[in-house]
Amino acid sequence: MTNAQENNPNIKIKIVKDENLFDLNLCAKDFIDLIDNFEKKFYNKKFFVLTAYYNKVLAGILVAEDKSQKVDSLEKILPTMCLQLLFVNSNFRSRTLGKKLLKAFLNIQKEKGVAIIYIKLPQKYKKGIIFFQKNNFHQVGMVRNKIILERYLWNDYGIRDCQLIGNNFNNMFG
């Protein structure tokens, strides 16, 4: 991405606060419908949603869900986000909107202390897989016909593990 693209004044990335579901559906209805219980979870604020505007037109969205309740073992709890959707309207592709949405999302999640971001993509969605791999996501598995790509954010800071305070574990809950 060139410096001119990086600082494009036509592109604005926003955390969803007052956008309504109607606007999001106009942008990506067919894809939003693929997310289980999207409307209910959206209104109950279960999703983290970013929007990308190009010249004040909603051109892309990113939807993620907190999966931090996932316990890896008794000693570890890994703050985890599942990236449900990254969509840019075909009329606005090749303008770095997807990359900017992902970069903003990663920066916000790093600030929150999230350890892992993952996404499940259909195996046949080669462009999406390549996009995420170019952005430091790595394949960690497969479920049915979907590839699981993951980015371990704590590696960006040199942190390798999240462990509770060893011998004081029992004291923390007693």
Structural write-up:
By secondary structure, the chain is α+β, with helices and mostly antiparallel strands. It has one domain: Aminopeptidase. It has a 7-stranded mixed sheet, with helices on both faces. Strands 4-5 form a two-stranded antiparallel sheet. Strand 6, helix 4 and strand 7 form a beta-alpha-beta unit. The protein is globular.
Keywords:
Aminopeptidase; 30% helix; globular; disordered C terminus
Q: Which SSEs are present, and which pair or pack?
A:
Elements: H1 3-6, E1 11-15, H2 21-32, H3 38-43, E2 47-54, E3 57-66, E4 71-73, E5 76-77, E6 80-88, H4 97-112, E7 116-122, H5 126-134, E8 138-143, E9 146-152, H6 169-173
Parallel strand pairs: 6-7
Antiparallel strand pairs: 1-2, 2-3, 3-6, 4-5, 7-9, 8-9
Write down how many β-strands occur, each being a DSSP E stretch of 2 or more residues. 9
DSSP summary: helix tally: 6
Distance between the termini: 52 Å
Rg over alpha carbons: 18 Å
Major sheet strand order: 1-2-3-6-7-9-8
Q: How does the major sheet shape up? A: 7 strands, mixed
Q: What would you say about this model in short?
A:
The chain has one domain (3-173): Gcn5-related N-acetyltransferase (GNAT) (Aminopeptidase). It has 6 helices and 9 strands, in the order αβααβββββαβαββα.
